[in-house]
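Following up on my earlier thread - several people asked me to post the actual chain instead of describing it. Fair enough. Here it is, all 237 residues.
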Amino acid sequence: MTEKAPSFGLLLFPNVTQLDLTGPYEVLARVPGAQVHLLWKTLDPVRSDTGLTILPTTTLAEAPPLDLLLVPGGGGINALLTDGEVLAFLEERASSTRYLSGICTGSLVLGAAGLLEGKRAGTHWASRDFLAAFGATPVAERVVVDGALFTGGGVTAGIDVALRIVADLFGEETARLVQLSIEYDPHPPFDAGSPDGAGEGVTTDLLARMRPMLEARAAAVTAGAEALRRRRSARSG
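Reply from S.P.:
Thanks for posting it. Predicted structure:
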């Protein structure tokens, strides 16, 4: 149990997948006394990858001390993998933040900041193999906990990750109260939320549709891993 009102920081960026952000936000904002900050370089409106516009509440430069720093995923993470300002912010804050979290492909951004080396981590199933480029061990689980690092699978897993963090901070009873308050009781109409459930045909079809995006992500991950290697080499030299 924390002795002060918790301060949660969620990174906001162009082309974020809004549910990666707003799912955890809904959970964390219901913690009594919690302060939830949406962090970006400026306070200008930010457009998600499906067109929803969200307002940052705090700039990276003015962000207060944080108990949790959470990075959501989305198409916009490709640019973040080599974004020096964002990666420096994550790396600097990681040393003073109680918890780090990556939702969906947001985990790759933590990797590009050098924060996944030797860690078990999860992400969206279609991008899971990319984690190894940053020295992480990919794990095929909806929520992956490695010490103070909480990562999750795709999109909706962010709700589960946030509930696990609340339980770790305040106890299971508080997490249960939050879960009940949002009536998080999923009973999906189809067993198609994973490749195993969806089956080979549906999975193959979706991967074909995702191919251009995954090819672009592979290139971005390669660039991000190389940039990380150069930063480390410069420091050690």
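The chain has eight helices and eleven strands. That should answer part of your original question.
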